[in-house]
Design brief:
This protein is α+β, with helices and mostly antiparallel strands. Helix content is 28%, strand content 41%. Helix 1 packs parallel to helix 2.
Length: 116
């Protein structure tokens, strides 16, 4: 299942495209500014209450944001989360909150399907 969202920031007036690709054992999530592109990539794997995260391609500005979100999602589903982030400039805190909320609400809605 693929979910796609478009978010326009009220404060910075930036447009972000979110693509969430769901697999049986995890997610691939792409966050892109203005156009669909792959840039930095973070991969997290959860087992029990522990996560391992690898920075495949490091982000210049917002690595902590994608690492934290990737870890959180992998723990929520006890699986794999691959996260890609392409931005032209550093994200504002409000942009991070908006993106984070939209992704987590989508994942929360699908979380029960993993427990089947």
């Amino acid at each position: 299942m693929i979910e796609q969202f478009e978010i326009t920031s009220n404060i910075s007036k930036r447009m972000f495209l979110l693509s969430i690709l769901k697999f049986e054992n995890g997610y691939f999530i792409s966050i892109s500014e203005d156009q669909l592109r792959i840039k930095s990539i973070s991969v997290s794997l959860a087992t029990s209450n522990h996560t391992n995260t690898a920075k495949v391609i490091q982000d210049k500005y917002d690595q902590l944001f994608i690492d934290t979100l990737s870890r959180r999602i992998s723990l929520m589903i006890n699986g794999i989360c691959i996260m890609s982030l392409f931005t032209k400039n550093k994200l504002q805190i409000d942009d991070m909150k908006t993106i984070n909320d939209k992704i987590l609400k989508s994942i929360e809605g699908n979380k029960d399907e993993y427990r089947g």
